[in-house]
């Protein structure tokens, strides 16, 4: 099942961002026990190309055991998905980001929940220099 397409683009400021992106079920097909080779989900490469800018930082998160780190990194590099950090071995529960709101009113913590294995197709990001 595919996630519904948002009705409005996600409006972000023009300043550099930090992206915390879950790996399994968001970027690649959820793969319990890594029984199968990794496969990118729909819209992932397009999202990286359109939304993530060179000055942004990308931190990938996963509950995968650290023993799979080399294979995971190799897959990401082969797929040309730029990332700055890969954090392995996290709990499978919620990932909570707490951040301050800038004096200008800019919210600096944003969450996007996608359906497992739905990919990133349909998530549109617009940079608003006025934010």
Description of the structure:
By secondary structure, this protein is α/β, with parallel strands linked by helices. The protein is 14% helix and 15% strand. The protein is built from two helices and five strands; from the N terminus they run ββαβαββ. The strands form two sheets. A three-stranded parallel β-sheet has the order 2-3-4, with no helix packed on it. Strand 2, helix 1 and strand 3 (57-61) form a beta-alpha-beta unit. The longest helix is centred in the middle third of the chain and has 10 residues, at 69-78. The chain is globular and about 45 Å long. The relative contact order is 0.30. The model has no long low-confidence stretch (mean pLDDT 91).
Summarize it.
The protein has helices spanning 44-51, 69-78; strands spanning 10-12, 18-22, 57-61, 85-87, 125-127.
Give a quick set of tags describing it.
15% strand; 131 residues; alpha/beta; single chain; 14% helix
Termini gap: 34 Å
The strands making up the biggest β-sheet line up spatially as 2-3-4
Q: Give the averaged pLDDT, no decimals.
A: 91
Order of helices and strands: EEHEHEE
SSE topology sketch:
Elements: E1 10-12, E2 18-22, H1 44-51, E3 57-61, H2 69-78, E4 85-87, E5 125-127
